[in-house]
């Protein structure tokens, strides 16, 4: 089974189409009734419905692989919500410090995302995509080996590019690195070096584009993260530079140097308390880090001057605040748990009453059927006299059977089980199968949709032609896009 790190890495590397398929599979397993899907940059937008707390809720779901600006991603989702819609944000790149909780948007990322994939047995599908990526990588390596057998001087070009960079001849260095990339488009080292040349040439936008390509090819390339943070700092975007170093810390949390850099960026944007926490982590890892010691001392003085207290006191207050927040969250969960228990008890009581009523009805039906058999045995002798009596008894049996079926259906819904299949005669089954086959001859209509159309009362193509667009859209599983296509297709015939 794939680990969390392998799973998240695979999801970041597969195609947008494959990521969309994984996302839809997960949402359907979670119980969402999907009505429409779409893509937006590195994200998938999905509209669907799900029952929550006994109510059917409309959701707009965003499945994202974006690594940066997650707050902006969630804000964009919030802006897209309308009316009484709720939001769900699924992401491969979420860390707890990245976002704030909102009332209308649920956020699931990182470890919780992985646990959902594991819970619904979707990891084998992710693993198949991982194997596909490995095969593609092997194919690329074979191509590289073949190109190497023709002996292009790639290694020599890389050395010359570095030499030109060291001599300050950045344009010439770029040309050598581009030669390498012409032969090896996925050479992350060449992309990294090319980014540094662009930065020296005063073009941070090209530098950022090149360094992002290097990271996408090799997400474990530590130098690229450091250079990206440096590029963003040169652009004046300290917040993004800080976020980049946080990505690097997630990759290598044991490196004290990265915590030191993180603290330095936090200090630059004025987050002194966070900076102090980060620099303490750096010194915990490497107590002899001289620059970290200097920054620790400076931050300690700045915090004392700003707050009038020693940083250790601030830490204590922060811990107390977190404890209060956790206590409040725990009490809320306890309250919700009590409400759920009460709701469950009510449902269990209702189920019990329905089961008793059903048992009584079954008994009454059994008695009536026995009486019916007795009447039928005497029917030949007393045909005229008993005809009216038999008719009334039969009506009573039919009424009770209908009520029993309704109660069974209600009971099954409350139990959460799938409803029993209706017993059909051979002739009725054949008629439905023929109707579904006829409906499948329509463009855009598959077996599942054909059965939903049939269950909605449209027994043939002629029935569909007489329906309005609004009536078609009421069919379960018919999103706005497929409704429009089928409606136009029926008009054209």
Basic shape = elongated
Terminal residue distance: 51 Å
The number of distinct structural domains comes to 4
Residue windows where pLDDT falls under 50 for at least 5 positions = 419-429
Give the strand line-up of the largest sheet: 1-2-3-4-5
Regarding quaternary structure, how should these chains be classified?
A: single chain
Helix count from the secondary structure assignment: 21
Q: Give the helices and strands as they follow along the chain.
A: HHEEEHEEHHHHHHHHHHHHHHHHHH
Describe the overall structure:
The protein has 493 residues and is of the alpha/beta class. The chain has 4 domains: 4-126, Trna Endonuclease, Chain: A, domain 1 (3-Layer(aba) Sandwich); 164-317, Tetratricopeptide repeat domain (Serine Threonine Protein Phosphatase 5, Tetratricopeptide repeat, Alpha Horseshoe), CATH 1.25.40.10; 324-415; 426-492, DNA polymerase, domain 1 (Orthogonal Bundle), CATH 1.10.150. It contains 21 helices and 5 strands. It has helices at residues 4-13, 16-30, 70-80, 111-119, 123-149, 154-166, 170-183, 188-200, 204-217, 222-234, 238-251, 256-268, 272-285, 290-307, 311-379, 383-415, 426-440, 447-455, 461-466, 469-473, 480-492; strands at 33-40, 43-52, 55-64, 86-91, 105-109. Strands 1-2-3-4-5 form a 5-stranded mixed sheet, sandwiched between helices. Helix 7 (170-183) runs antiparallel to helix 8 and helix 11 packs antiparallel against helix 12 (256-268). The chain is elongated.
Draw up the topology in text:
Layout: H1 4-13, H2 16-30, E1 33-40, E2 43-52, E3 55-64, H3 70-80, E4 86-91, E5 105-109, H4 111-119, H5 123-149, H6 154-166, H7 170-183, H8 188-200, H9 204-217, H10 222-234, H11 238-251, H12 256-268, H13 272-285, H14 290-307, H15 311-379, H16 383-415, H17 426-440, H18 447-455, H19 461-466, H20 469-473, H21 480-492
Parallel strand pairs: 3-4, 4-5
Antiparallel strand pairs: 1-2, 2-3
């Amino acid at each position: 089974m794939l680990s969390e790190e392998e799973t998240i890495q695979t999801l970041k590397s597969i195609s947008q189409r494959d990521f969309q398929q994984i996302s839809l599979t997960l949402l359907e397993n979670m119980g969402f009734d999907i009505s429409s899907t779409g893509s937006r940059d590195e994200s998938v937008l999905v509209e669907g419905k799900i029952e929550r707390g006994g109510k059917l809720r409309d959701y707009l779901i965003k499945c994202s692989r974006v690594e940066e600006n997650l707050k902006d991603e969630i804000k964009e989702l919030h802006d897209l919500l309308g009316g009484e819609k709720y939001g769900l944000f699924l992401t491969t790149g979420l860390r707890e410090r990245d976002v704030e909780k909102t009332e209308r948007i649920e956020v699931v990322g990182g470890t919780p995302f992985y646990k959902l994939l594991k819970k619904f047995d979707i990891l084998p599908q992710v693993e198949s995509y991982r194997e596909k990526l490995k095969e593609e990588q092997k194919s690329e390596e074979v191509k590289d080996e073949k190109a190497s057998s023709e002996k292009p001087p790639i290694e020599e070009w890389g050395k010359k590019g570095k030499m030109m960079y060291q001599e300050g001849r950045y344009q010439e260095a770029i040309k050598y690195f581009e030669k390498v990339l012409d032969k090896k488009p996925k050479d992350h080292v060449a992309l990294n070096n090319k980014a540094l040349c662009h930065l020296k040439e005063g073009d941070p936008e090209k530098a950022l584009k090149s360094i992002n390509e290097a990271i996408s090819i090799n997400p474990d390339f530590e130098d690229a993260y450091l250079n990206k943070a440096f590029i963003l700092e040169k652009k004046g975007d300290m917040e993004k530079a800080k976020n980049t170093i946080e990505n690097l810390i997630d990759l290598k949390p044991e490196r004290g140097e990265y915590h030191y850099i993180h603290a330095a960026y936090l200090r630059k944007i004025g987050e002194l308390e966070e900076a102090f926490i980060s620099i303490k982590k750096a010194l915990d890892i490497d107590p002899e880090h001289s620059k970290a010691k200097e920054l620790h001392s400076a931050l300690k003085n700045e915090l004392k001057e700003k707050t009038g207290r020693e940083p250790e006191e601030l830490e204590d207050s922060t811990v107390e605040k977190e404890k209060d927040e956790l206590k409040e969250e725990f009490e809320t969960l306890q309250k919700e748990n009590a409400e759920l228990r009460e709701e469950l008890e009510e449902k269990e009581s209702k189920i019990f009453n329905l089961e008793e009523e059903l048992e009584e009805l079954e008994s009454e039906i059994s008695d009536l059927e026995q009486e019916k058999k007795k009447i039928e045995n005497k029917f030949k002798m007393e045909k005229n006299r008993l005809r009216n009596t038999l008719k009334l008894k039969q009506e009573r049996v039919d009424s009770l059977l209908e009520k029993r079926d309704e109660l069974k259906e209600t009971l099954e819904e409350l139990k959460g089980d799938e409803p029993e299949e209706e017993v059909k005669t051979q002739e009725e089954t054949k008629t439905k199968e023929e109707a579904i086959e006829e409906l499948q001859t329509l463009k855009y209509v598959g077996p599942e949709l054909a059965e939903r159309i049939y269950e909605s009362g449209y027994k043939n193509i002629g029935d569909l032609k007489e329906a309005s667009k609004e009536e078609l859209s009421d069919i379960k599983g018919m999103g706005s896009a497929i409704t429009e296509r089928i409606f136009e297709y029926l008009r054209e015939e």
